[in-house]
């Protein structure tokens, strides 16, 4: 356990070193997306509707992968890729069209975890139960802190930091890659990367928004 804590602290420091560089890359990505979205995005499709649709699809995927063999299922992979792409743009849409809200940010976190958690359990439980258990714990903490911040701080949310974005990217790629059994080991590595970076994200947010009284 001591080694695990040291690893998380080390990852937190490493995430801080690369945070500025990654933020710069994300800033460039956002500028490109804003250019593509502004004056072109249909007014009827709000950011919250896009997030809500991702949540609905995530809930529908869970029984599907239980009833149907998901391994090697290219249709499932395509659906997951589309859902992840919507996660990349819904925040940009909200900011570009002045649709940002604390509720939308909270729904975004819920939709992200709902997409990753159930499928991750099915794909990884027999292969690496430690990864599943620790990841579920970490995601539960993230959601708990998000709800606490939302209901106790005038409907505000804990903003996503760079480590949190990297965590989501690792987990999202992991559940896609794990669809193919031959790539399970690489998916497992990505999953562990997502876990450690996610723990660093939790520690950063806890320090910045709870211990600091923000």
From TrEMBL:
Locations listed in the record: Membrane
InterPro entries: CDP-alcohol_PTase-I (IPR050324), CDP-OH_P_trans (IPR000462), CDP-OH_PTrfase_TM_dom (IPR043130), CDP_ALCOHOL_P_TRANSF_CS (IPR048254)
Membrane topology, as annotated: Multi-pass membrane protein
GO molecular function terms listed in the Swiss-Prot or TrEMBL record: phosphotransferase activity, for other substituted phosphate groups
PROSITE patterns recorded: CDP_ALCOHOL_P_TRANSF (PS00379)
UniProt keyword annotations, A-Z: Lipid biosynthesis, Lipid metabolism, Membrane, Phospholipid biosynthesis, Phospholipid metabolism, Transferase, Transmembrane, Transmembrane helix
Gene3D superfamilies: 1.20.120.1760
Transmembrane parts of this sequence: 51-68, 75-97, 130-151, 163-183
Pfam families linked to this entry: CDP-OH_P_transf (PF01066)
Cellular component terms (Gene Ontology): membrane
GO biological-process terms attached to the record: glycerophospholipid biosynthetic process
Predominant location: membrane
Similarity comment text for this entry: Belongs to the CDP-alcohol phosphatidyltransferase class-I family.
Record protein name field: CDP-diacylglycerol--glycerol-3-phosphate 3-phosphatidyltransferase
């Amino acid at each position: 356990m001591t080694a695990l804590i040291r690893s998380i602290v080390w990852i937190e420091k490493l995430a801080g070193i690369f945070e500025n560089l990654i933020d710069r890359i994300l800033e460039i990505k956002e500028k490109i997306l804003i250019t593509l979205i502004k004056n072109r995005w249909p007014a009827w499709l709000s950011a919250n509707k896009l997030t809500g649709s991702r949540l609905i699809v995530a809930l529908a995927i869970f029984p599907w992968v239980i009833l149907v063999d998901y391994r090697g299922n290219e249709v499932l992979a395509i659906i997951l890729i589309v859902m992840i792409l919507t996660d990349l743009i819904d925040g940009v849409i909200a900011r570009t069209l002045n649709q940002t809200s604390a509720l939308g940010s909270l729904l975004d976190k819920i939709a992200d975890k709902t997409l990753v958690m159930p499928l991750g359990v099915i794909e990884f439980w027999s292969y690496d139960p430690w990864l599943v258990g620790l990841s579920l714990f970490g995601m539960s903490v993230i959601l708990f802190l998000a709800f606490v911040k939302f209901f106790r701080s005038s409907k505000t949310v804990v903003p996503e930091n760079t480590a949190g974005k990297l965590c989501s990217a690792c987990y999202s790629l992991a559940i896609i890659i794990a669809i193919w059994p031959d790539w399970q080991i690489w998916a497992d590595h990505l999953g562990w990367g997502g876990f450690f970076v996610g723990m660093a994200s939790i520690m950063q947010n806890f320090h910045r928004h709870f211990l600091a009284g923000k």
